[in-house]
Amino acid sequence: MSSQNVDSAPKPSQVQKSGVRAAFEYTGIPPSWFDKRPKLPSRNWLIFLSVTSSIVAYYVYDRRECRRIRADYSSRVEHLAKEPLGTTDLPRKVTVYGAKWPGDEDHDKSLKFFRKYVKPIFVAAAVDYEMISGRRSGDLANRIADEIKTRRRIDAGIEPPSQSPMPLPNQPTLEQKRKREFEGGIVLVGRHTLKEFMSGLKRGWTESMDRVDREDMLAQELASDGRFDEPEEPVIDPEVVDGEPLPTRSRLLPSQNAVLFPLQMPSSSPSKSTQYTSNIPAHLDTPPSTIPTLPTLLLVPFTNHIGFRQVPNMLWGFFNERHKVRAGSEAAYSLIMSHVRSFAAANTIVTASEIQESQLDGRQGGDLDFDLPAESYYDGAYTPSETEKARKTYYDALPAKLSTARALARGTRAPTKEEDSHPPPTEVELRAERLKKEMRWRGDEAGWEIVKPGQLVQWDERFADALQVFDEPRADDVG
């Protein structure tokens, strides 16, 4: 009885299969795969999947928030782009300054930050912009100082305003250009840019408004330092050569005098003076007691992380782009809505809603302490000893280069095969190379003195009534 039951029991191969399983078996899939049951992965796989999924989810969330924040602020200002303009009207235009971050070879990092985080809101509001950057530290300060001196010369009637070589219809006048600049505003990206801007601002309104060619002044200074002077030759007694007296007028006959000593005319060309004299009257060259109101400033916080020690900050910033997007969008929105307040000068007490808290370490306070913690990220990025080392290396090798150039130019020796294939620089080229290097070295030293950590922002009491800052709009202005 029991043997009959065993024989009558169905075998696994004779079990009724579903149509889907039967179809998959005919495709060549091993039958053992259909008998497997799902189970949890191993411990290592669980760790790997949880970590990678968390990182990917955080990255996706951050980029989605970036798009949401940017779309939110763009929707607030896009109605301004739809407002019609007259046939002769121009859109609002702002000037964007971005100085070179100390220690970074890429001089355009500040403006890259502007283009990525601030520009999209300007584009949504149809606000035009002009970007100005400095290739080296101090270039921006020199440019701003020169522009202000040019403006002072024009206002004093010493220099005519610049005009287009081809007059165009409806060309704006000087007053219209200045009005558009004033209504547009100025964007300063980063604390280092604020330092250079204020330094150039103070120099422009304080120094003489003479047009100075820095390269020409440096060339005159280098020409008189003796680096390219000829080596002194041994002094020879003019009366005796090889033991024989030289023929002089007293030892020769009159006929020989006329042949050996022809008539010499005295030189009448005066020596050229290298001193610079100003042609501007003293009463016009005096710094003004008051400064006209300047375009309103927009201060955009910016920090550039470079170096191996700041890799953790770079990683944190990569996964937290939304904070930069929000900061740039809020700054652009403040400028577009034109909510203005006075510039908080040094030692000025203001409310917390108007300005960030003044530093408690005895610093300047007010807006002059804008983005102060950013200085710690480029502390030590540049040291004057680097320039001194490069200068010493160059001047140690200069005499040999100069001797080779003069020997080849005068034909005192034949050039080698290597010199034939790769001609060494001539004396003129060495002088130009030296001038270029000194311009760069001295510019780097002067620029570092402006932006180095701990250096105070340049300030003049005349700026108190001339500067204003874009501030975050109030809640009633947002609607």
From TrEMBL:
Keywords: Membrane, Mitochondrion, Mitochondrion inner membrane, Protein transport, Translocation, Transmembrane, Transmembrane helix, Transport. GO terms for biological process: protein transport. It comes from Suillus plorans. The keyword Transport applies. InterPro entries: Mt_import_IM_translocase_Tim54. The lineage of its organism: Eukaryota, Fungi, Dikarya, Basidiomycota, Agaricomycotina. This is Mitochondrial import inner membrane translocase subunit TIM54. It holds the Pfam family Tim54. It is found in: Mitochondrion inner membrane. It is a single-pass membrane protein. Belongs to the TIM54 family. One of its GO terms (cellular component) is mitochondrial inner membrane. Transmembrane segments: none annotated.
